[in-house]
Write a structure and sequence with these properties.
Length: 292
Amino acid sequence: MKTVLITGTSKGIGLETALAFGRAGYKVFATMRNPKMADDFRQIIAEESLAIAISEMDVDSEESVKHMIDLILDEIGTIDVLVNNAGIERHGSIEELKMSDFKAIMETNYFGSLRCIKGVLPQMRKNQKGCIINVTSVAGKISNSPLGAYAASKFALEAISESLAQEVKPFNIRVANVAPGIIDTQMANDISVDDNSIYPHSKRLGGLFTASLQTPTHPSTVATKILEIAESQTWKLRHPVGPDAQPFLDWRASMTDEEWVDWNAANDADWYRAVENTFGLNARKDGQIIKQ
């Protein structure tokens, strides 16, 4: 039985990924900061008789990560797949967001993933096999306000993954980045409209998320792709996931850097009109989808 260690499994993409691997016959170590919140998850595991062990692990803590990985290796002897999914989001303008928020995002989204990667690599390298899947984001290739701090952490994860893939391929270890677009998760729904900000971008992007979520993409879509990557022999590094992921990336790629800055700096009327013309979404407060 293959083993997989998954971080951030209390809800959303992480929970669905744990279930997908469990249903595929893996021994799953589903980790989270607070297992006391996982009663519904435990019920599903029991009802379906899945080989999923819910465990406490805080990716912000080197001691916690080392303890968990040592326990798995002592019990099973190997970790075949690592899925770095744990992540947090804080949004706001660069001026208004607290330094503590910038540090917290980087600690979990970047350093947390890096701790887990460094923890599993020695045994994967020794065994000459393994798969590391990092859940990044479309925001790992596109940066716009008010998600600058979040994007910075995902850009960093994208960058380290690209270097990692080069280093570990000679040891038959595959690295893949899964980049979801707007997925129906608590995090996406929490991109709130901040009418108190001196910058208009929070209100506008919050409206875009609200409009997109009127036709939601379930987290299981991302989980299915993660399992597919683990089960395959693909060496493809980047995997956009969700109906809007590649369109968002193509949209950004169609502009120069200066055009991208100008578009995000545009007045409200021009910005909302561009979103309607490009994606058929009304990002204003009514959040209604406009048919093209």
